Amino acid sequence: MGLSPAAQDIVLLSGGTGGAKLARGIAEAFGPERLAVIVNTGDDIEIYGAHVSPDPDLVCFWLAGLIDARGWGLEGDTFAVMDALRGLGVDVWFNLGDRDLAWCIERARLIAEGHSPRAALARMGKAIGLRSAVLPMSDEPVRTWVRTPADGWSPFQQFMIRAGAAGPVEGLEFRGAERAGPGDGVLEAIERAAVIVLGPSNPLASIAPILAVGAIREAMIAAAAPIVAVSPIVGGEVLKGPTAAFMAFAGLPPSAAGVRDYYGGLLDGIVADEPVDGTPALRTDTRMGDGAARMRLAREIVDFARGLGPTAATAAGS
């Protein structure tokens, strides 16, 4: 039986910027009510009395049209609190805008009152006009740790910001994933999906933490919907972040074929701007420089996925 146009039948797994931009493209192309985004929380950090959840917040701000031109945080935000903390001698290594900080303080308050991460995010999202479902991968703490020769083991944000993502990467752990359950609404989103997309985020650092929650991976394997990945490698290069260093750690080339091999048998197809042999593949321009490019790519991805199996035929159309 087909899904109604109002159903959240397009599910996207997302980490950072690439996934957030694709989420916006899907919402623009098919309507925000049709989209559910399962988002990495392995990068979360508690700091300044706030609970910062970078990837879910990035997705929310992109979907609400509030992202700043620098690619993170809220458009036009100010940094008076960070400046004041520096004036008090605080080592401000993690920079948050004033409105962004307020957002994260409110999340911490809601969670402390007993709200789930999803419920807290939904409540805040309503205030900014969010109409898609943004689903943290787990209600329980899962934290990504990275090992490098210079610093040993570090939480992900310290690796990314304090250490400038300096590699090589020697180890990667998702601490807490072995005992974490899926977040509120996550399994239901996967079960009702007609198309599942692994966004163009770092496969190891952004998508792997989601799949490390065992029940999520099991639900993906059992899903009737086709699963396609979008390669974050564009023009033979990584546009943003240390994806190449993580791919090297996994013993894989920084290429669409390497991304396909990392996900293994989970995929039904891959979308990339380079040829990929041995797998159903859509070769197309995967850059998302503006709204038109985001919408074009979103439509091409969903149309490609629809053609991969009978279940996918119920997915979104033009």
Could you give a short description of this structure?
By secondary structure, this protein is of the alpha/beta class. It has one domain (10-314): 3-Layer(aba) Sandwich (Rossmann fold). The protein is 38% helix and 17% strand.
Outline the structure in words.
The chain is of the alpha/beta class and 318 residues long. The protein has one domain (10-314): Rossmann fold (3-Layer(aba) Sandwich), CATH 3.40.50.10680. It is 38% helix and 17% strand. It is built from twelve helices and 14 strands. It has helices at residues 17-30, 54-63, 80-87, 98-112, 117-127, 156-162, 186-192, 203-212, 214-222, 243-249, 256-263, 291-306, and strands at 10-14, 35-39, 45-47, 50-52, 133-136, 143-148, 152-155, 171-175, 195-198, 227-230, 233-234, 237-238, 269-272, 281-283. The protein has a seven-stranded parallel beta sheet, sandwiched between helices. A three-stranded antiparallel beta sheet has the order 7-6-8. It has a two-stranded antiparallel sheet with strand order 3-4. α1 links the parallel β1 (10-14) and β2 (35-39). α1 runs parallel beside α2 and α1 crosses α12 (291-306). The longest helix is centred in the last third of the chain and has 16 residues, at 291-306. It is globular and about 60 Å long. It starts with 9 loop residues before the first strand and ends in a 12-residue tail after the last helix. The relative contact order is 0.16.
